[in-house]
Task: structure prediction
Amino acid sequence: MVEVHLWSGLRSLTGGLEVVEVKAATTGELLRELVRVHPQLQGPIDAGVSVAIDGRVIASGLTEPIPEGSEVYLMQRLRGG
Result:
């Protein structure tokens, strides 16, 4: 199981939960499972989110492995400019 920390704007979509647990081995599985468990997250995820694993923002797509015991954060998409 992966513990996913949610940014404050998503917590109202998960019944106020700050941390959600899902079973996932990759970033793609993580996003699919979050939507399966909390369908209200579909919109924000479709709009674009960033996933950080152990302090590193993942930019390589949906196949990035999530090592067991990792610290995972789901955040608003980070954009440069």
In short: The chain is about 20% helix and 25% strand. The longest strand covers residues 2-6. The chain has one domain: 2-76. The helical segments are 27-37, 42-47.
